[in-house]
Amino acid sequence: MKKIWDSQNNETVYAINEEALYNRILSKKRTTNSITNCSELLLIIVNAGSSVFITAVNSLGKASILMYTLSVWMIGTALYVIVGRISRKRAEKKFNKTMLDELNQAIVTAAYQVRLSQLMRWNIIPVGALSLIGLWGLGKPMWAFGLIAAIFILSYYASGWEHRIYKSRKRELEILKEKLNNEH
What is the domain range of residue 78? Predict the structure, then answer.
């Protein structure tokens, strides 16, 4: 913001430096896109890789229908994220390069990231349940069962912390849009 003296009214007025605002919007958009891309790719790789690993280990040892179910659930999660990524990328092409459109695109991407993080947080519950029931059924020692349960509980709470960060970033973008709309 620049402070300008209005000589007609003898008062101070403020003007927005549009170039700096536009650069700030682009920076926030790049950050949002980068985080979302990283999250999607990580979710795809981890879920698909875990699915393959679980299937391989399960087929080599004592086969468990629960472990195959977990494997199918995880590959389904990876496919869900792939479809969401494709849809998000297609939607990005609908925005123009104006300041408001760049901001709207950043908000849409941030909203997608918030939804994705919430879904993946809830996804911990069925993955954890299937894992623990599968371990129980395979007769694994109680300490392993407790360790895995603790890891899933910690993951659930850590994902809540992460989700709140994404929500606050989305809210920052919405506040910026409100301010921009109020100026015009």
Answer: 18-183
Q: Letter for the amino acid at 177?
A: K
The answer as to whether 124 is a domain residue is: yes
pLDDT in tens, 2-56: 444 445 555 554 556 678 888 899 999 999 999 999 999 999 999 999 999 999 9
Task: Write the pLDDT tens digit of every residue in 143-168.
Answer: 988 999 999 999 999 999 999 999 99
Q: Under 8 Å CB-to-CB from 180, ≥6 apart: which residues?
A: 21, 99, 100, 103
Q: Quick check: is 1 in a domain? A: no
Q: Looking at this protein, which amino acid is placed at residue 112? A: Y
144 with 102: CB under 8 angstroms?
no
DSSP 9: T
Say if 11 falls within a structural domain: no
List Cα–Cα distances, 151 to 33, 78, 140, in angstroms. 29, 21, 16
Q: What is the pLDDT of residue 55?
A: 93
Residue 119 is classified by DSSP as: H
Would you say residue 95 lies in a domain?
yes
β-bridge mates for residue 6, sequence order: 11
The count of structural domains within the chain is: 1
This prediction has a pTM of: 0.83
